[in-house]
């Protein structure tokens, strides 16, 4: 795997592994509540991550896409592509709201603060970053990603190794864990939950992956990078799921599961993880609110700054619904958008796999 493939793989993983993933709340609701079968659900997500990452990166590279909208236009046509783009932007805003709630839950669980305090602090940081253009902070926060991954992996491996609960006991506890809801009802099967989890995350990662794939001249290198990133994500999800399942007896009613497991190992480890989580939540929140505000105003303009502040404050109000409830509501609905993308990606790949770069580029230019 060359450096271009590695760049795509790391970028793919970075955009998906945000505060929600590392908190363990997503994985707990999507997989752990199904017991041992939830591991099979996480394997389904892993396979889909690899396939979808490979196809998005390949198609984007072949057509040298400069924007994810070009890829959407290729898959849906100009009018339908615009509608999908707007719907996608709306739900990505919802992810930003979830991050504000996640900041409140993290600080509440670790430091005993009222959830509103953490959410307000994160909202102020987001507004300050978007209005004052503190780009260096975002670059600095990106350094936290490797540290966070190593920390979470170490916590999971240690927690799996030291778990003493019997599988039968854990399976019984799993029946009491709230699973993800979809259209007002619990998702009835682990396989469907695995599909929804992959579709949600591909909806979140699609815009960045499409743009980065377009920067790579070799479609094969881009495809390898997308597949490698998807397999890496799959490995992390499976390990995190196993770690949470083997400790379900300690995690009932906990909003930030990984933080609780860190606390059980050592209080200072929990402090380090909480700081890393807040940094990742901050980075994800800024990215989501920036993308949403950019739909209505050019970045760095006064209009953009005002709208960013308004959207963030509205998001603060919405975030008070609660972290766990928002994850269980926003993510499955975004998963519906992701399902549409998955179908379109597969159909587009079948339709365009034999097209030349010139043919795809010409079609993209016609539709843009």
TrEMBL record:
Entries under InterPro entries matching the protein: YkvI-like
Segments passing through the bilayer: 32-59, 80-101, 113-133, 140-161, 195-216, 228-248, 268-292, 304-323, 329-350
Keyword terms, alphabetized: Membrane, Transmembrane, Transmembrane helix
Signal peptide range in chain numbering: none
Domain of life where this protein originates: Bacteria
Name of the protein: Uncharacterized membrane protein YkvI
Protein's organism: Halopseudomonas litoralis
